[in-house]
């Protein structure tokens, strides 16, 4: 058999095996409940929309299910995530670490309202850094996926983007989702070099999209970098050099972190941690006006992920 034929057969067998494995994932969530205090904590937030709101965007690292990454089974967490989506009602969700089990379970339970943008990287791999959009409120016009030239080869280190029309107003907006590398112990210099390269490529992509479509870009994601490393984050930990604050500074200078817009309504469960450093951020380029910024940081939400979801409303 020729080498090319052997390669094709190998790819087919691998794809079949992958499809068989993922097909075995249980997608029935009816047997799962809510942890104590979850529903009360979720209902304590006011998610009503102001008249000026054109688009609501959520960014959430939902934590891959792989045990080596610290992720527990998807199904009980998916039940909670779906409840959060129902309460928050975002127009677009920038998702990180959406592993194959997450794709399978959410595909079966999102219903017709929410659609996953660019779910596949190739025939074998799902997009772990993607966007879920509300098809009743947003109409996709164009989209893309770009892998960074450096970084972990795990499907996370990339940027997914979508150009949308807001159906109610006809206005345009671009939403992006990304997930940077992180500073690892013993590899500090090399890690920062990778992260800075990713930041440069990300900023270049945002500038390209803004120039091409001339509309606001809302840039969401898990950037694995904090505003400052010398003050405690939302968990009360001071991360020092591992906060990669120089990378954050580069992003904030080029794009602007909406959380720090003067006069913005910032909401979370603990007033004392309102401006504590975080790994996840929503940046903006263009003329979108941020109206609210919410961190779903009640401790019970840690049953979903080791990250807290962040939500922002914008006028376009």
Structure description:
The protein is globular. Strand 7, helix 5 and strand 8 form a beta-alpha-beta unit. The model is unreliable at 5-22 (pLDDT under 50). The chain has a single domain (50-315), classed as 4-Layer Sandwich (Deoxyribonuclease I, Chain A), CATH 3.60.10. By secondary structure, the protein is of the alpha+beta class. Helices cover 28% and strands 24% of the residues. The longest helix has 26 residues, at 188-213.
Q: How is the topology of this model organized?
A:
Elements: H1 3-23, H2 38-43, E1 55-61, H3 74-88, E2 92-96, H4 100-109, E3 114-117, E4 129-134, E5 138-147, E6 158-166, E7 172-179, H5 188-213, E8 217-222, H6 245-254, E9 265-267, E10 280-285, E11 289-295, E12 310-315
Parallel strand pairs: 1-2, 7-8, 9-11
Antiparallel strand pairs: 1-12, 2-4, 3-4, 5-6, 6-7, 8-10, 11-12
